[in-house]
Amino acid sequence: MDNDSLAQGFAAAYFHDSRINTKELRRRYREDSLLTVEGTQVTGLSNIEEKLASFFDNTQTHNIRTVWQPSENNILVVVTGSMAAGSERGIPVSHTFFLKLETMTVYVRNHVIALIV
Length: 117
Description:
It is built from 2 helices and 6 strands. By secondary structure, it is of the alpha+beta class. The chain has one domain: Nuclear Transport Factor 2, Chain: A. It is globular.
C-alpha cells in the first residue's frame, strides 16, 4: 500500500471509529503512545482510551481534510477540519498523528488534538 492510501485510509477509519465506538480506537495505539489534547498529555492505553472517550461523542460528525509527509519509516498525518454534534455549528479542529510503521501494521505513536479558536 502506498503512503497516500495508508494516510487517507487511516484517517477515514479513525474518524469512522470515533463516531461508532471510541473503544475501537484503542487498537490504534500502543502502551508507549502519547496523546495530547489541548495541552494535557496522557500515555498508556487505559489513559488514552479514557481521554478519547471524553473528547469524542458518537453524535459528532467530522468534515476533514488529510495531508501527510513521510518520515523515515513512519508517516506524519495532519487532519484538519471541523467537528459538530447534532445541529451545532462545527468547531475547527486539528489532529496531528505520528504513525509508526511496523511489519504489516501501523500504530499511533504520537497524537496531538488542538481546537482552533
